[in-house]
Design brief:
Length: 216
């Protein structure tokens, strides 16, 4: 399973992005998105924001579970009390697929240089918002209860690395979002940052990656 995680502020601007792969069942933690999928992912994430905005009025939970899907890609969402959106796209891939490194130009979060992101034709600008993308097909939300997550990630047919719709995956994603939310709160309370600004901290990035290895 390959993951693309993004934090989007209330102006629909991405403030943090990270790609990683599953670390369960012998996974190496490397994302295996094709170049076409890597270019499409930001548009799918932005299109799913409409579903987040609609569902926030029908749920009193911050974790909105799986809200959207397009082809084989599934998107889960987490809404903070300040309406910042955490989005996680998960894409299953065939076994033994070699990791494909992102282009050099997509490096984004250097605290020593200008902020850019993988959203085509955009840079982080508080005065502008992302262009809207095409609407993807919505998925039915499942009313799954909390289930324990084993260290092995479940069976080979329905475990975390193989099935983005399984109860084990739903619970693992919830735990991932919860840990990232705690790290995000500490980050925005810094006098050098805020919820509307890009997160360039290497410490925050490493903690998000560690949460991905821990739960996904």
């Amino acid at each position: 399973m390959s993951y693309y995680f993004c934090i989007v502020n209330t102006r629909d601007q991405p403030t943090f992005e990270l790609e990683f792969g599953t670390s369960k069942q012998g996974g190496d933690g490397m994302a295996r998105f094709s170049q076409e999928a890597r270019e499409l992912n930001p548009f799918l994430m932005h299109a799913s924001l409409d579903y987040v905005d609609d569902m926030q009025w029908y749920s009193n939970q911050m974790y909105l579970k799986r809200i959207d899907h397009f082809a084989h890609s599934h998107i889960s969402a987490f809404l903070t009390p300040t309406s910042t959106r955490f989005l996680l796209l998960h894409l299953p891939h065939p076994p033994n697929t070699a990791p494909i490194p992102p282009p050099q130009s997509s490096t984004s979060y250097s605290p020593y240089g200008p902020y850019t992101n993988s959203f085509p034709g955009t840079t982080f600008n508080p005065a502008s918002s992302l262009s809207s993308s095409t609407t993807t097909s919505s998925s039915t939300r499942s009313g799954l209860g909390n289930l324990g997550v084993g260290s092995g990630g479940g069976s080979s047919g329905g475990g975390i690395p193989n099935n983005p719709t399984s109860p084990q995956t739903e619970e693992a994603v919830r735990l991932f979002f919860t840990e990232v939310f705690e790290c995000w709160l500490k980050s925005i309370m810094s006098p050098f940052g805020g919820p509307m600004e890009a997160i360039g901290s290497s410490v925050f990035r490493s903690r998000v990656a560690a949460a991905g290895r821990k739960y996904l």
